[in-house]
Structures are given as C-alpha cells and as structure tokens.
Write a structure and sequence with these properties.
The complex is a heterodimer of chains A (264) and B (268). Chain A contains twelve helices and no strands. With 268 residues, chain B is an all-alpha fold.
Chain lengths: 264, 268
C-alpha cells in the first residue's frame, strides 16, 4: 500500500514535470498564458482609470492572473484527452499499469502550474508598468493561496477532462467556459454586482473561493481570512475530483470493452 | 482591355472560388465549433465586459453592447481570413492555387467575401443578443443603421486576416499571430474601454487598425445620429480595409514570385 502511494507520488512528480516542460516550450501556450492576461490586465487598468477610481487597483493584476490560470486549465485540461489522441499517446496511457486518472491528473495539474506564469506576468507587469503593487503583508501566505488555487484548478481540470472525454469537439465546448467562470468567480467583477440568480451558482464554484483566497492574500488579508476560503475551495474541488475519477474509470472500462482505445 | 468575358470570369472566381475555399479551408464549420467560437464566445465576452464596466460605472450598457458587437465581427474574419491563405499550405494545395491562370486580385478578394458575410452574421447576432439580454434601448431604425458599420468592420477584419495569412506563408505558427492580432484589436479599438482613457500611442495604433472607426460610427448611429454623421468614421474603416487588402495581395504576389524563382511553390 505504502509502496503504491510512493509509486503514484513519484510518477506524479515525473509526469507533472514532463507536462510542464512540454507546455512551456509551446509558443502558442506561452502566448495564451503570458500575453493574453497582460492584455486583460492592461484593459482593466484603463477601465479603472476611466472610472476615476482612487488608488492603484492591484486586484486588476491579480484578477487578470487568475483569468490566465483558468484559461490555461480550461484549454489544456479540457482538451487533455483529445491532445493525447492527436499525439497518438492515448492508447499507451490507457494501457499503462497506472490508472488513467493519475496520468490525466498530471496534465491538469501541469496546466494549472503553467497558469501561474500568468499570475507572475500580470503582477510584474502591474508593478513595473502601472505601479500596481499588491499590498502583501505576508508573501508566503499569497504563495500558499496561489498553490491552493493551483490544486483546486487541477482537480476541476480533472472534472473537465473526464466530462469532455467523450466529446469529439471538446475544444469547442472548453472555449465557452472561460468568460462564465471569469464572471461567476469574481476574478475581476465582484460577484455582488451579478444578478441575484447567479450568486448561488457562484457560491458553489471552487474557483470563486480559490480566487477569493488569492485576492485576500494579495490585499493584505491575514491567515484567518485567507485559509478559510482556500479550504472551502479545496473541499469543493475534492467534490469535483471524486466523480471525475469514477467517470474516467468508466470511460476506460467502456473503451476496453468496445476495443476502441482511441475513445471515439 | 477589360472584356465582358474577363469580368464574368473574375466574378466567377470571386463567388464560386470564394465559396469553395470557405467550405474547404475554414476549419470552424463543424457545428459545435462554429456555434461555440462564433456565437457563444463573443456574447459571453460582451456580457463580461458589460458587467465590468457596469461595476466601475465607466459607461452605460449600450457602450459595451455596440463595442462588443462590432468587435465580434473580427472572430470569423481575422481567423477565417488567415485560414483562407494559411490552410492552403497546410493542406498542400497552395502550389495548385498559385499555378492557376486566374487573376490574383479576384482570387484573393474572393477569399474575403464569405468571411465578410460570416462576420456580419456573427456581429448582428451578438448585437441583437446583447440588446435583448441586457435590455438596451436602441430604436429598431438605429439598429438597421448599424449594419453598414458592421459590414465595413467585417471587411477590414477580413483584409487583416488575409494579410496575416500572407505573412503566415512565411511563418511557422500563423494562428498565434492571429490570436495576438485579436488581442491587439481588443486593446486598442475602444470596443471595451473608452479610447480617451488609453495612452496616446495606443490611440495612434487604434487609428490605423480595424474595428476602431467602425465602433465610433456604430456608437454614433446607435445614439440617434444620422448615418451622414458617421460617414467620416466609416470612410476611415473602409480605407483601412482597402490598405490591408492591398497589402495582402502585394504580399501574396511577392511570395508567389519568390516561390516561382526558387522553384518551390509551397516550400520555403
């Protein structure tokens, strides 16, 4: 049992590292992860300026970074199976002795880690270009909140990967998931300004709590303020992970039974 | 001398050639991709920026609905225009296209036409959906007056797409460039942020890139101004379309000459 756990952990480290390196060498992924969030940060900064709001809103840089992290997860995790299908490695992953869910978890976690490039880029951009310095009182707490966000997004990515696995046009569906989550999770727009019927949906999204934890940590919140939403976000994400694992196991069994490892 | 037969031949290349190239090269025509990328995403983007602007009190909902609708024309036009050229190489058909005796202006202009129509449909859908969801008040007559601005925006974005596709014949990953182009349009066009809030250099870039002038014209007519008042802005947008389309044809011509000289029609 302990040997199995050690094997999974070792494989996770190796797998995540491999996928992070692969994603980090793709110019297309880097453009989406670095340039697009900077554009959002810039646009939001000028919108704040147009609104004549006092102060320099560091939440703009943090919010744009969170947008980039989510975009990375949706694009890479949502299309994880399809990408492996295109690369011709899906069959190998399914046939490997390790459960398919573990192999997919490497990809979704790697996507969330690559998403942190966005956070780094928007924070650096905000500070250097617009003077938007986050009001950290505890940088370690901010790093912890971002790490919690990465784990949450990784688990949500698993749910996306498992539910989109049977769709031929998974990318098309994943395309539509960016803006609703930006809006519902309060990454830039506070959820209090959303219509009343949207707010319960927002409250059950792990991304809302993860984003809240990161925003609070960046805004100078203490451990008590940050750790509670982070914990809620992780708990809700765990709720996504369990059905995802079952779904992936079902899909794998089905594909083996039908002898269609390409899962089409 | 231009004869009637030549005109007919050119028209056939534009209409039939354009339609065939659209069906063959535009890879987003699968229903799921078509609906999600061209109808759902622009509306969601519009709603996101409207709520952001509403929360900040920057401008009213109409500002964002009009801006978002005009910008949405860029989705099919920029990406489609790029595909109309770049996918010829990807599918290995560029050599055959370059060997045809047909006039090059008609050949490449024909590639733009379907995307202009596609862009118009997407922009009208985004506009009407935005108006209905956000209950923005625009008189039906003013809505109709916006259509010419959407057509010019679609034309200039298609020309931009074609020019990017031409550049793409010499680049490895042209769709990365298209994505960057859409991001630049979002930033500098004033579709989602008042241009007065942008720094001078961004306003200057916006002056010479698609969408900006069409947004100005559309907002003017949506506010009840007669179309004549919007004509200078419309003319500006049309001029950008002509310049970009000319640049695309010149670039493609230059690429064709270079390829013939090297004896490598789609390899470089």
């Amino acid at each position: 049992m302990r040997g199995d756990l050690r094997r999974v952990l070792r494989l996770t480290v190796v797998g995540v590292r491999h996928h992070v390196l692969c994603m980090s060498t793709s110019p297309m992924i880097l453009v989406f992860t670095l340039v697009t969030p900077l554009a959002y940060a810039t646009l939001a900064f000028y919108l704040f300026r147009a609104a004549d709001r006092p102060g320099t809103p560091a939440q703009v840089a943090v919010g744009a970074g969170l947008m980039g992290m989510w975009e990375s997860v949706v694009s890479r995790a949502g299309g994880a199976v399809q990408t492996q299908r295109w690369l011709g490695t899906l069959e190998t992953l399914v046939m490997a002795p390790m459960p398919l869910a573990v192999s997919l978890a490497h990809i979704t976690l790697a996507a969330a880690i690559v998403g942190t490039y966005s956070m780094g880029a928007t924070l650096a951009w905000g500070m250097l270009v617009f003077g938007m310095a986050p009001a950290f009182t505890d940088p370690a707490l901010f790093v912890l909140a971002v790490a919690g966000c990465v784990v949450s997004l990784g688990m949500i990515g698993m749910l996306l990967a498992s539910t989109l696995v049977l769709l031929r046009n998974a990318n098309a569906v994943a395309n539509t998931l960016d803006y609703p989550i930006y809006l519902l999770s309060g990454v830039l727009v506070p959820i209090t300004v959303l219509p009343g019927w949207m707010q319960p949906i927002s409250a059950v999204l792990p991304t809302t709590w993860a984003a809240r934890a990161v925003h609070l940590a960046a805004g100078g919140g203490g451990p008590g303020e940050v750790l509670v939403p982070m914990g809620i976000g992780l708990a809700l994400s765990l709720g996504c992970l369990l059905p995802a694992v079952r779904m992936i196991a079902w899909v794998e069994r089905r594909s083996r039974t039908a002898a269609t490892l390409a899962l089409t | 001398m231009i004869t009637r037969a030549k005109v007919r031949q050119g028209a056939r290349v534009i209409v039939i050639g354009g339609a065939i190239s659209y069906r063959a090269l535009f890879t987003w025509t699968a229903p799921a991709m078509f609906v999600s990328s061209l109808f759902v995403v622009p509306v969601l983007q519009l709603l996101f920026f409207t709520h952001l602007g509403r929360q900040l009190g920057v401008a009213d909902d109409r500002f964002f609905v009009i801006g978002g609708a005009v910008l949405s024309a860029g989705f099919p036009c920029v990406f489609g225009g790029t595909m109309a050229v770049a996918n010829e190489r990807a599918y290995g058909t560029l050599g055959a296209v370059l060997l045809t005796p047909g006039g090059r202006v008609a050949l490449w202009a024909g590639r733009m036409v379907p995307y202009v129509l596609n862009g118009l449909i997407v922009a009208v859908f985004t506009l009407v959906t935005g108006v209905l969801i956000l209950r923005v008040r625009i008189a039906p007559a003013d809505l109709l007056m916006i259509v010419p601005t959407l057509v010019t925006a679609a034309a200039s974005c298609s020309a931009l797409g074609l020019a990017l596709g031409a550049i793409g014949l010499m680049a490895r990953d042209v769709f990365m460039v298209s994505n960057l182009a859409m991001t630049v349009l979002l930033l500098v066009s004033g579709a989602d942020v008042p241009r007065s809030a942008l720094p001078g250099w961004m306003r200057a870039v916006g002056e010479v890139t698609p969408v900006t002038h069409a947004v100005v014209a559309a907002r003017a007519v949506a506010g009840g101004a007669p179309l004549a008042d919007a004509l200078p802005a419309l003319a500006g947008e049309a001029a950008i379309a002509v310049v970009l389309a000319t640049a695309a044809v010149v670039l493609l011509r230059w690429f064709e000459h270079g390829s013939r000289r090297r004896g490598a029609l789609d390899a470089h």
